[in-house]
Amino acid sequence: MRKPLKSWMNRQLPLLLVWTNSYERLTWTPILVLLANALEAPEALAYAASAYSAANLVGNILLGAASDRLGPFRVAGASLLLLGATTLLHLEAWSALSLVLVRALHGFFASAVTPTSLSAAVEGSEAGRRGRIMARLGMVIALASVVASPVAGRMVDALEVVATLRVQALFLVGVGALGLWAGSASKPVLQAAGGELAAEDDEGRRTALDPRVTAFACAVGFAVMFGQNVLFYALPLKATAAGLGPAAVGGLFGLFALGSVVAFSPPFSKFADRYGRLRPIAAGSLVSAAGMFLLGVGVQRVWLPLMAASLAVYGFGFGLVFPAVSAAAADGSSAGRRGTAFGLLTAAFSVGAIVGPLLGQAFDPHVSPFTLAALVMLSSLPAARLARAAAAPVFSGRA
Question: What CATH number has the domain spanning 211-391?
Answer without folding.
Answer: 1.20.1250.20
